[in-house]
Amino acid sequence: MLGPIAIWDLFVTGILRGGMYALMAVGLSLVFGVMKIPHFAHGEFYMLGAYTAYFVYAVFRLPPLVAILSAAFTGLLAGVLAEKLMFSPLRRRHAEQWVLNTFLVTVGLSFVMQNAALALWGGQYRGITQYWHGSIQLFSGMHISVDRAISFIIAIFCIVGLWWFLDFTRMGKAIRAVAQDETGALLVGIDLDQIHTITFGLSSLMAAIAGASLLSLNPAYPTVGLAPLYKSWYVVVLVGLGNMAGAIPGGFIVGLLETFSYYAFGSGWQDVISLSILILILLFKPAGLFGSRVRNLSNA
Amino acid sequence: MLTVAQLESGYNHLQVLWDVSLKVMKGEMVALLGRNGAGKTTILRTIAGLLKPKAGRIDFMDRRIDGLPAHEVSRMRISFIPENLHLFPAMSVLDNLLLGAYSIQDPRKIKESLAFVHDIFPALAQRRRQLAGSLSGGEQRMLALGRGLMSQPELLLVDEPSLGLAPRMASTVFDTLGKLRLRGLTILLVEQNVHTTLQISDRSYVLEQGRIVLEGGSREFLENDHVCKTYLGSGDE
Amino acid sequence: MTMAQACGINTERTNRWAVLSPLGLFLLAALGLLPLFVQDEYILQLLISSLLLGSEAMAFDFTAGFINIVNFGFAAVLGVGAYTSALLVLHWGISPWLGPLGGAIASAALGFFIGVLTLRLQGIYAAVMTWFVGLTLLSLTASLSGLTRGYRGLNVPLFLNTATRRPYFYIIFVVTLLTFVALQWIGSSRVGLAFRAIGQNLESARASGVNPTKYRVINFTLSCAFAGLLGGFYAHFLGILTPDVMHSRQTVEVLALAYIGGRGSLWGGLMAAFVFVPLLEYLKPLMEVRLIIYGVLLILVMIWCPGGLAEIYSKLKQHLRMGTRAILKRNTP
Predict the structure, then answer these.
(1) Which residue among A69, B63, B159, C134 has its CA within the 20 to 30 Å range from the CA of B134?
(2) pLDDT one-digit tens code per residue, C85-106
(3) DSSP string spanning C210-244?
């Protein structure tokens, strides 16, 4: 059986991962809720964040916070560019089959970004051991490394920040308005193009922050985004597409589940089991665990 | 104030409007009448910028507005209150109203608008914290009107404001429209309720199959039995 | 204007027996005769790759272009066919010539299963489901290392022990032909019409008496059966299998070809394979660049020409036809 300390360690890892999954999943949810884009290149913005942070921190030897902030900025910039160059012209040209077409565009984008990273930086792992040294003693042998604690705080800070932004600012309210009723938003004078660009930029920014803060756990390499991508999709499907509030507890549930089942079954089988669970959920509750209505998106 | 000239419009490949021309003067309340499918809503949607016209032009206060995207039309102080409202259901009444003033930057002006709307619809002040989606049908209609007023529009395009409302509620809505007009708003109204509409409006256009077939003073229409019978069914529906 | 036309889906096909146009027939005959003149193994290899990927794109398009669901687990289905065929040959001593049939049956069963799993799901949810099924199969294949040898790779007996690739060319040529004719024939039959109907609008298809449940399962079963057949060929052609064949990356390559070729056209994917596989093979030293090009093309097609090569072709044909008509008119006194 596991001792309390081992359980504690697993718990801490699970919560830390969960925080990052929540951060990723909230971005995914935001993009789907506001723009109706099933975003399959979300992991590539995570990858971009990880590389940026690595170069800034390990190569240019700048402080960790600068590394993470530069990653955030790069993510934002890349997201804004992607939206302006691809989704904006696509929306202007034809709105039919939007969900499917944008899905395929993001698939292409993911291919491009992954292979561009490979061409530019090669396939090797670029990681760091930690941003911050030391650990915090809690009680009777249970401790947390400072590095992980700070990563966790960053994740929470970002989620709370996003929440505040969406709930209390004029722009944030406009974003929610677009998600709830696009025509209504147009009628009150909201510029959809602008909202879409901001939304996609924000979501990419958060993915990049996740990639940067987890650099000590997952080194940067071209396909590092794949696991976070499918984990965040896991979360989003678990709680229902577009359900942003649900993405937060969902992230933690998935983080904890993954950590404990990894311990219990090993990596390969853990994937098989957790994926099978999700398939069952999709089968019986297609709108997600917390969802009540099945959204018809076939022709959206 | 609003001039629509030789407008042709519709959805994708289905043309609905043919050669529609109309004028609305400042301070007027003008009604668009006609049977279902005659193209009344299409006119409003085209003016509001939700539909792109295929031909013709629309001028508002000496500026050409046809082809402008809807959010820019809205910023030119034209408010469209659609039949199916398009509220933000998961937001509070207050947030819905504040979003109505999205294009206004000055916080003092927003406060002014809010006071104005709360004055007209006291119920919206009482329910400010409630979610828009949880309001009753009549309250939602008021909220939509209120949201449309928040941007301090010059011209109000109102589509079927009494649809689905109990008679008492409907007459409240008409009273409100009358009040707004007294305060100097210009209103272009689409209504099924022909009798009441003719009573409160100054002029009317009658549409049939996407064309304007008749125009004149509302009072004259009301007194002209032939017009009521031929074009509008026998008065109230 | 129907939605199909709006999306650039080719709906003009009416004669179901006209599976091949004269032009297509000519190209096909030329392709079949080509190896008689070409001795270069490298070119043969390119032709084989093009045929294989092109057939995969057609099988993929049979779901994506017809019932409008992206089977994101396509590579996994193909991999199941490949592994089944390989294991049947290895453990049961079945001839490699029959193995792919076993693969096709296994994949068809899997396709049936996926069809049932996605029954209640619409559009993107169905794609996510197939993706997760694919991921599950991938990790399952990697984990069952007693059977599949996992990432160490499974050595698979070849069809033939020959030095030249020419026989392989003819095997895949026949398989491609079979795939194309079968899919085209079904696609232009009443069943195909039902597929397109549920792909365009599920509700109105249901209203006009098409049972979406039945046709979706039939479609998945058929498309996956061909994927399994191709997987079997792949296994006994290459001689080694790793779980990587099931990776979503492989799906994306096939998906890109199918959509660049033109959704719902079937032949578009094959055409795209013949254009892009050799072209990109030319850039082989830079594998990344090749995949970047795929990605960029996919994005460009989605934004600027959602009907793909097939749309360009039909527009071109239309222009030509109108052009000739104009000339005829001018020349008639």
Answers:
(1) B159
(2) 999 988 888 888 888 888 999 9
(3) --HHHHHHHHHHHHHHHHHHHHHHHHHHHSEE-GG
